[in-house]
């Protein structure tokens, strides 16, 4: 694994010419750093900025660090935030796609941060697939993180989402999404995966979540979950009601198995990280004490 680093100030949408010979520049209380990590035949772009408690934010499937800019900007007010693009997302290069491959991207970033010698172990925050990756990483690397914040993912749902009955509907949805991606191709928001690759990954994620309870048992750090009340939307049409019930049942199952895990519910769908960034940032900030301390005011 190799790393290429340069540092600049201010927001940006690419990792090309940084200007000023890559020297560090200050803007307010922030210093932005941008670097890439080469591993497993792919290049992963990483950004770091802010001051305070170290925090690593892992995006999910079909989301990029550019998509998460509002949440990242809010967290950087009082956290030293590191975020990155998974392979095939944003400005990362394409590669082989599987849960284990994405997990290796997160592991490569975390290994580089250990080399940089952070002031303290980071809080690891994951959204959707990123939450599942965070749980697997923490279970395999004891003591490497201060705690976990899991946003609408890593849910041990009792039933798989992608059954034969819904596959045609989801295939059509992801084919449409792939077509829409043409408008952002070549930008920091692009997703290079095909509709079939996304479909295959979602089937794999269902299988991963069927065994994720065992992973939770190996984690000795505080965990907070931030979950949507209507992950599939609240229209009541189609499969939404069943999906939402399955989602809630998974969280309730986890609560019975791991009662120390705190759960905050937001009145939102699975896009909560985009629509409710201030609320999510507030909840994450509340973990400055014990990450797993219950927040009953957000529990329905």
Could you please describe the fold and organization of this structure?
By secondary structure, the protein is of the alpha/beta class. It has one domain: Alpha/Beta hydrolase fold, catalytic domain (Rossmann fold, 3-Layer(aba) Sandwich). It contains nine helices and ten strands. Strands 1, 2, 3, 4, 5, 6, 7, 8, 9 and 10 form a ten-stranded mixed sheet that branches. Strand 9, helix 7 and strand 10 form a beta-alpha-beta unit. Helix 1 packs parallel to helix 9, helix 2 packs across helix 3 and helix 4 crosses helix 5.
Can you describe this structure in just a few lines?
The chain has helices spanning 69-75, 99-116, 129-140, 167-180, 195-210, 212-216, 240-257, 272-275, 277-285; strands at 2-8, 26-27, 30-39, 42-49, 53-58, 79-84, 123-127, 147-151, 223-228, 262-266.
Write the layout of secondary structure elements.
Elements: E1 2-8, E2 26-27, E3 30-39, E4 42-49, E5 53-58, H1 69-75, E6 79-84, H2 99-116, E7 123-127, H3 129-140, E8 147-151, H4 167-180, H5 195-210, H6 212-216, E9 223-228, H7 240-257, E10 262-266, H8 272-275, H9 277-285
Parallel strand pairs: 5-6, 5-7, 7-8, 8-9, 9-10
Antiparallel strand pairs: 1-3, 2-3, 3-4, 4-6
Quote the distance from N terminus to C terminus: 45 Å
Q: What is the arithmetic mean of pLDDT? A: 87
The unreliable regions are 5-30, 290-300
Q: Radius of gyration over alpha carbons? A: 18 Å
Tell me about the largest β-sheet.
Answer: 10 strands, mixed
